[in-house]
Amino acid sequence: MQATLKSSVRFTGTGLHSGAAVHLVIHPASADYGIWFKRTDILLGDTMIPARWDVVEQTPLCTRIVNSAGVSVATIEHLMAALAGCGIHNALIEIDGPEVPILDGSAAEFVRAILKAGVVAQDTPVRAIEILKPISVERGDARAELVPADELRIDFHIDFVDAAIGQQTKGLNMANGSFVRELCDSRTFCRQADVETMQANGLALGGDPAENAVVFDGDKVLSPGGLRYADEPVRHKMLDALGDLALAGAPILGRYLGTRAGHALTNELLRVLFADPSAWRYVECDHQMAARLPGAGVHMAEFPAVA
């Protein structure tokens, strides 16, 4: 069955790129509602934005959605990953600013609050998107691909010149709480060489290596406390990928393979997928199929102690 939260949950924090304070509330929603954002700081016009692939505006460092009136919300990927990883299909997200709070740089605080509030099944079956044939997109040395599979599996490879990151590869089946156990507390990261450039361009103004990001410089980890996992960067890229894939509007049954891929490439992959009706179909999930979806049966005991 589809699922939503048992009760609303609230967050206060700072936007990673804007540096602005923001308040956000996730409300339960009825079956077949989907995931929608509402800008509560805008009083006139259309303030509703669907969390959907076809309203994504291409940005290199985060995922930003914008409606036909030009109203937008940015950096939604960690929240979307938390909702998908906890098996939430329907929710209304009210936010009083243009960017989701970065919190600790991962999806952990979103996941903790959702699981604490509780997840309630609804009286409507889940429809999933079944991948029927391989599709892929490439930009330079970056590649993203979806291939048929019985569950959602994410495989990712990254390669950075900084020795503290280097080459990292990881793959996970997203069913049975693996997102909560393995990925949700992996934080966003960047290279020290990029920090000044981003801030000079009005980005990463709310970034703080002591609170919400991991910063690398060559063979050094500059953030106090170091890494939560030796391969935290690739885990975070997988977290981002789950959040961006959640914009498909339904759980995906297929294997995602990312090589140096980012937000824009994953969104381009969804656009290519939905442009080809022979590449996918909706399937109504029975109990066996639903058990293979992200978030199925997840509970607070699976929340990682490191977060």
TrEMBL record:
UniProt keyword annotations, A-Z: Hydrolase, Lipid A biosynthesis, Lipid biosynthesis, Lipid metabolism, Metal-binding, Zinc
Gene Ontology molecular function: any one: UDP-3-O-acyl-N-acetylglucosamine deacetylase activity
Names of the cofactor(s): Zn(2+)
Binding, Zn(2+): H78, H236, D240
GO cellular component terms listed in the entry, alphabetical order: membrane
Chemical reaction(s) catalysed: a UDP-3-O-[(3R)-3-hydroxyacyl]-N-acetyl-alpha-D-glucosamine + H2O = a UDP-3-O-[(3R)-3-hydroxyacyl]-alpha-D-glucosamine + acetate
SUPFAM superfamilies: Ribosomal protein S5 domain 2-like (SSF54211)
Gene3D superfamilies: lpxc deacetylase, domain 1, lpxc deacetylase, domain 2
Pathway involvement of the protein, from the record: Glycolipid biosynthesis; lipid IV(A) biosynthesis; lipid IV(A) from (3R)-3-hydroxytetradecanoyl-[acyl-carrier-protein] and UDP-N-acetyl-alpha-D-glucosamine: step 2/6
GO biological process, one term: lipid A biosynthetic process
Active site: H263
Highest taxon of the lineage: Bacteria
Pfam family, one: LpxC
UniProt-listed Enzyme Commission number(s): 3.5.1.108
Protein family: Belongs to the LpxC family.
Function: Catalyzes the hydrolysis of UDP-3-O-myristoyl-N-acetylglucosamine to form UDP-3-O-myristoylglucosamine and acetate, the committed step in lipid A biosynthesis.
NCBIfam families to which the protein is assigned, alphabetical: lpxC
Protein name: UDP-3-O-acyl-N-acetylglucosamine deacetylase
